[in-house]
Structures are given as structure tokens and as C-alpha cells.
């Protein structure tokens, strides 16, 4: 176990957690100092996160996507990057707490898996499709995570977040249903792109676009759930609570696709199960 494998997730996770607490505090108190602390701490955590990713790539001499530990570093970074873009563009911090605390939890899990060293990529994964396929999927995962968090909040408090919370909303009321809908649509587009890339990759590696790998099948289940979401959106009586519940169900399927493959009896047949 290298010291960097422990040190970097610990530092990044601690800073993500501190940023999350600062974002949470903005729900109760408007404060310029809290805004600055939250944003600066979050950016610092992301910088350490990306530095760890770069060092791991340099040390291994290959994209660090193979082990669960490596994938968790990528997942936290993608989540943080998506949120930071939202904050910079919209000046809204309503997603700051779930993004930062979610990244902190991911880093904690990575810390617990820090004994995993770099694993050489098998020939089937040594493809120019590898980096874009994995990267697009993880940005999609991050978007769906944020959509699910907003959907949970919507089920508890369906009303808009008003102008009395300018630190969170950027001065404009935010409809939670519109927020999770936008995140779902963006995430669905990324999942679709990732699936198409994976199909093209499979054709090159195995001679067929779809080989019925267990993870491929669960990726399809997740995709179909969000495909159903997009269709049901146009039935007015499905909007609101029902679509929020479907968003959460889609996230659960996605989480199982990412983390639950080793539980399947067919896990040994999959090249996609993280080591």
C-alpha cells in the first residue's frame, strides 16, 4: 500500500466534508464568509482529487480505471467537476451539500480500499474507446446521483426554493422538479453515449456489439428506466412525485450496476467487475 493511496483520499475527503458542512450551513444562514469557505474548500478538495488521479496514471502507466479504488477516485472527481461547473455558471449552491458530502463518502470508501494496487489492463481493455467510455459513464453517474438527491428532497418538500435563500439559488426561485428533470436528461444523454461507445468497443474486442455481459445487461436496465422516465414525462399525471420516485429507482439500478456486480452468480463471467 503506498502512502499516496491513503494520504490523497484522506485529504480530499476531509476537505469535501468540510465544504459540505459549509454548504449545509448556508441553508440556515446567509454569509459571504461561508460562501467563500465552501467554494474554496470544495475547489481545493477537487484539486487534490485530480492530482491523485494524475499521479496514479503516471505511476501505473495506464488509465487508472481498472480497480474499484481507482474508479472511486474518478467518480468523486466527476461529481465535483459537474457541481463546480453548475456553481460557476448559475451562481447557485443548492447542490453544494449533496455534491460535497457525496464526494466525501466516495473518498472514504476509496480510503478503505486503498490496499488495492494498480492492475495491468487485459488486452480487451487496451482500446482507444476505454478512456471516453469510462469518463462519459462516470459523468453520467454523477448527474444521476444529483438528480436522485434532488428527487428525494422534492418528495419531502415539493415547493420551490425561493428568493429568500440567494446564497443557494443565485437570487432566482428554483423548482426542484425542473432541477431533477434537467439532471436526469443530461445524465441520460451521457449514459446513452457511453452505451454506444461500449457497443462499438465490444464489436472491436469481441466481434459483436452486445455480448450479454452481466454489467452490460444491468446498464441496459438502468438505461431503460430512464428511457421510460422520458416517455412518461409527457403524461401530465406522471410529473412530480411519480417521476421523482422513478428517478430514485433509476439511481438504485445504476448504483447496483456500478457496485453490485460482484454479488451476482455470473460475476466471474464479467470483465467489468471491479477488482
Overview of the molecule:
The protein folds into 2 domains: 1-116, Four Helix Bundle (Hemerythrin (Met), subunit A); 127-275, no CATH class. It has helices spanning 3-25, 32-60, 68-90, 96-112, 130-156, 166-169, 176-206, 214-232, 241-259. By secondary structure, it is mostly helical. The chain is 70% helix and 0% strand.
Give a short overview.
This protein has 275 residues and is mainly α. It contains nine helices and no strands.
Shape: globular
Low-confidence stretches: none
Separation of the first and last Cα atoms = 15 Å
Fraction of residues in β-strands: under 5%
Please give the domain count: 2
Instruction: Using the CA coordinates, give the radius of gyration.
Output: 19 Å
What's the oligomerization state?
Answer: single chain
Per-chain topology:
Layout: H1 3-25, H2 32-60, H3 68-90, H4 96-112, H5 130-156, H6 166-169, H7 176-206, H8 214-232, H9 241-259
Helix pairs in contact: 1-2, 1-4, 2-3, 3-4, 3-5, 5-7, 5-9, 7-8, 8-9
Tags for this entry?
Four Helix Bundle (Hemerythrin (Met), subunit A), globular, mainly alpha, 9 helices, 70% helix, 275 residues
Amino acid at each position: 500500500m503506498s502512502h499516496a493511496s491513503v494520504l490523497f483520499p484522506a485529504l480530499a475527503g476531509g476537505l469535501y466534508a468540510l465544504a459540505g458542512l459549509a454548504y449545509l450551513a448556508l441553508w440556515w444562514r446567509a454569509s459571504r464568509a461561508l460562501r467563500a469557505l465552501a467554494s474554496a474548500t470544495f475547489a481545493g478538495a477537487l484539486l487534490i482529487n485530480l492530482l491523485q488521479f494524475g499521479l496514479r496514471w503516471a505511476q501505473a502507466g495506464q488509465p487508472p480505471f481498472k480497480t474499484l479504488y481507482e474508479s472511486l477516485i474518478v467518480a468523486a472527481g466527476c461529481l465535483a467537476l459537474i457541481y463546480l461547473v453548475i456553481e460557476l455558471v448559475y451562481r447557485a449552491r443548492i447542490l453544494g451539500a449533496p455534491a460535497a458530502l457525496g464526494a466525501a463518502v466516495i473518498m472514504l470508501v476509496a480510503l478503505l480500499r486503498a490496499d488495492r494496487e494498480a492492475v495491468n489492463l487485459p488486452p480487451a481493455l487496451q482500446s482507444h474507446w476505454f478512456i471516453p467510455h469510462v469518463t462519459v459513464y462516470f459523468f453520467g453517474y454523477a448527474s444521476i446521483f444529483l438528480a436522485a438527491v434532488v428527487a428525494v428532497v422534492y418528495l419531502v418538500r415539493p415547493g420551490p426554493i425561493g428568493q429568500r435563500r440567494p446564497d443557494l439559488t443565485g437570487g432566482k426561485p428554483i423548482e426542484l422538479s425542473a432541477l431533477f428533470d434537467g439532471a436526469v436528461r443530461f445524465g441520460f444523454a451521457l449514459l446513452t453515449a457511453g452505451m454506444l461507445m461500449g457497443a462499438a468497443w465490444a464489436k472491436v474486442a469481441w466481434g459483436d456489439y452486445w455480448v450479454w455481459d452481466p454489467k452490460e445487461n444491468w446498464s441496459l436496465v438502468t438505461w431503460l428506466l430512464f428511457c421510460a422516465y422520458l416517455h412518461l414525462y409527457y403524461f401530465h399525471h406522471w410529473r412530480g412525485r411519480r417521476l421523482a420516485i422513478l428517478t430514485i429507482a433509476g439511481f438504485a439500478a445504476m448504483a447496483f450496476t456500478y457496485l453490485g456486480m460482484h454479488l451476482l452468480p455470473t460475476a466471474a463471467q464479467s470483465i467489468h467487475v471491479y477488482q
